[in-house]
Amino acid sequence: MRCDLHVHSVASGMCSTPVLNRICRESYNDATEVYKRLKKLGMAIVTLTDHDSIDAAEALRKYPDFFLSEEVTVRMPTGTEVHVGVYDIRERDHVEIQRRRNDFISLVIYLTERKLFFSVNHVFSGLTGRRDQRDFDWFASYIPALEARNGQMCAKANAGAAELAARFGKVAIAGSDSHVIAGVGLTHTEVPGARTVDEFFAGLMQGRGRIHGAHGGYAKLTADVFSIVNSLLHEKPWTLAISPLAVLVPIFTAAHWLNEIRFCRKWSAILEGSEKRTQHLWDVAPRADNLIPEHFPFGVPLASSLGRSLGTSA
What we know:
Helix content is 35%, strand content 14%. It is an alpha/beta fold. The chain has a domain at 2-218: TIM Barrel (Alpha-Beta Barrel), CATH 3.20.20.140. 38% of the residues are buried.
């Protein structure tokens, strides 16, 4: 059984690039077209992982081999942001996930309680901004899976993610991360012998998953951006007035690609020489010795005094 675990549609909202975020979408993929493309390429089950949205799912509910997922923008305890794929959810899960996504610990507790499968995506990408070394400690401690092959990332970044998944003992998954129809389904995850969605994710947790398909590249990225620009011109004909700026696309994508390579090299080097460290949920609680006594006339709250008794470092 095969599935592309990272796919976008028009429901992913507006792009994050300043200025363009007012007029251009992240993706112009129609959900039904995505479904047909994935089935044509041999995906046994189909999902969408739009950014903090499940709006496109309505068109696919009629298909028995479709399941609901999303890519969640999550704020870490360090203040950084990461993209977390959460799979096979229900509508009520989406509401709760969105309520908790600015608190990594609260979100992890909910996902674990609900026994939902989730992963950190494109771990060696600077797409979501800066990274903190403690983020990787949190990944090692509480994330069950890492995206070890992303169809938009370079081969070196994917190799680093696969090595990190093996080092942390995490499930390795793959997805195209495609924002245009042409790339959908070209990178995917396989679980041999699985017959249902439940068996697919059970197989992943049992270590029976296999990752397949294409890596990303500069030429592929540039072609995808040109495709998105073309869709923008069709959706908003008035943007034809600024279409000459499209000649700058190769420069923009080159700058982005070089930054991704720099980000990957930096963090690969940092992690190569570091030891795997564990983070605990109580590590972010206020320490008792940092509290102001006069604010607690009846004693320090129990929750704030747990750190010392549980052995956290000073």
